[in-house]
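Reply to dn_fold:

You asked what the input looked like. This is it:
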Amino acid sequence: MKTLALALVLLGAASTPTHAPVRLLTLGDSFTAGTGATPEQSFPQRLAVRWRARGIAVDVDDPAVNGYSTQELIDRELGELKSFKPTLVTIAIGANDIVRHRELPEFRKNVRDILAAVKAAGVPASQIWVLPQPDWSRSPTAAEFGEPAAFAAKIRAYDAALREEAQAAGAQWVDLTALFAKQADAHQLADDGLHPSAAAYDAWAEQLATRL
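and this is what came back:
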C-alpha cells in the first residue's frame, strides 16, 4: 500500500504544471508588431510557441503598431492593461520618438509614465521586461529618415535612458544589443530594407524564452 501511495504522489507531481499560465502583453511599435514579417513570425508569437512547447499555457495580446512612439503607446496601448490583465509585459519603444524628434527629457517622462502604469496595474516589476531598439541606423533605408550616424548616436542615448528608467522602476532590462549587432552584421533584414527579418525576430524569441 505504501508503494502504491508513493506512486500516486509521484504521478500527481509529474502531472502538475511546471509554470503558471502566462498572460503576455507586448507593448511597442513595429519591432514588436513584426513589421517586415508576418504577425505569426513576430517575436511575441515565436516566444509563445517556444513556451507552449515546454508545456506553459500562454495567451498573447500584442497591441503594438508600426509607427507608434511612446505617446501613442500611452494613448492607445495602455488600456490593454485593464482589459487583458497581463502577468508579464514587454516594452520595446523609442525609434519613432527619435524619427519625430521628441526631445530626450520628454521621452524619459513618457517611459516613466508607461512603467508606472504597468506597475499600477498589478504587474510585478520582475515581470516587466524592457528591450532596447535594434540599431536600425545601419539598415539600408535608414538614410531616408536622415543622417545614419546621427541616428546611431540617438539610438544609444535613448536606449540608455530607457535602461535607466527601467532599472529605476525595478523592471528587467533585457539587453539584446549584442544580438542586434550580430544580426546587423549578417544583414538579417526584411525586404523593406529597414526592419528585421523573420529569422531575426525568431532569434529574439529564442533569447527571451530562456528568461522565464
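The chain is about 50% helix and 10% strand.
Hope that clears it up.
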